[in-house]
Amino acid sequence: MRLSARTLNRTLLQRQWLLDRVPHSVEEACAHLVGLQAQENLPPFLSLAARLTSFDPVDVTRGLEDRSLVRLLTMRGTIHLLTADDALALRQWTAPVHEREVGISQSIGVAREVDREAFVEHLSALLADGPLSQKELGLALAERFPGPRPTELGQLARSVAPLAQLPPRGTWGGGGAVVYQYVDRWVGRPLVEPDVGEIVRRYLRAFGPATAADVTAWSGVTRLGPVLAELDDLVRHEDERGRVLFDVPEGELADPDTPAPVRLLGTYDNVWLSHAGRDRVTDPVKRKAGQGVNGAAAMSLFADGMLEGLWRIEDGRVVVLQTLRPLTRAERSELDDEIGRVEALLAT
Length: 348
Known about the structure:
The mean pLDDT is 95. The strands form four sheets. This protein has a four-stranded antiparallel sheet. By secondary structure, the chain is α+β, with helices and mostly antiparallel strands. It contains 15 helices and twelve strands.
């Protein structure tokens, strides 16, 4: 079946729970979306508020504290808010992404030249007695591996080992220094061998239909074309350019005429970073308006399913910086409602 751009847009929004909010828990949302981008502290909370009918930000704090949720470097080499089950599998799958980062990261610098086997062994021993802050870990590593700066050694550690960021980092209103512990030690269960086929199917349930390049854009993992081709249960569609799009057999396609309400999303929201072209949710010309490489120069305002404005928070209030087209009267009313929701969240 050939699918229009509008159908793909609405289908993505439907699977992302951005057409209608849903009555699910934070943990269910993290599982369905295969993690939430959490490089910055606030965006995961905005992502959840945009998707869930009832959202208490303290539920994220509880999840991090009871270890049912974890902050961990995974897809695209960035921090994600994940369920514990996903943290134990996805870190294994994305290991090549982190290894590439070791080779190119300026933050790691000359630390990449240390003896890797000795480094990993010493890192494990350092954390055997309990978590350490990023600063403490870097200084302790520098005693054993002189030459690189402690900060470089700390950056190397988080790339070569599955180190979770522990609370209060990522909690509602929390912060402070980054504190690390091996994710398997933190949640009390071993890392597991990832089921790559099932990971791809879960991606498609939340982001599909999609190409292999789209899955790579989302994950950072390459050479996925053969993986999708070998999954005999997947169905195939085409986009308007004739490219093959894979989907799960139960994947529902949205009606292209379904209204898409205004939503205020944070920087690095999942809907931004999970397709190779990113044109499902933004016009290329409009994307350049004040946007950085990852669409993070400001937070994003979506109307009719597309990027149509930029916003930020000032003193607990939503400030719309610009709209990229005139909003309709109905959209302005929806925007007022969304502003009220976000400001109520910030006041929590």
